[in-house]
Amino acid sequence: MLIEGFNGLLLLITLVVAALAVFAFVDSTLRREDAYRAADKQTKPFWLILLGITALINVLPFLGLMGPIMLLQIIGLIATIVYLVDVRPALKQVTGGGRRRGGSSSDGPYGPFNGR
């Protein structure tokens, strides 16, 4: 019974890691190429290749095409965490995506624009 619970927990962790890898890959495809240079980060193709391989390595075991390759999954998890914690916020800051939610479309950088 304890082994079944541990296997269930391990499956949940693996699923979350795979979902994070896929999210990071999709997010990196949506960012502009020049934003990577402006944020002084690695190039977009570098992150696309790295995160794409990571997503593939994490998704293939769920499709039954490959057994788990734990070392590559750990390396990929580190790359995903670096992207999500360091690169993504820098890209959002460069492209102006770090704006707070709930603002009006007429809000300027210093507050609401009333048209006067």
TrEMBL record:
It comes from Streptomyces cacaoi. This is Membrane protein. The chain crosses the membrane at residues 6-26, 46-64, 70-91. Keywords: Membrane, Transmembrane, Transmembrane helix. The keyword Hydrolase does not apply. Residues 94-116 are annotated as: Disordered. The keyword Methyltransferase does not apply. InterPro entries: DUF2516. It comes from the Bacteria.
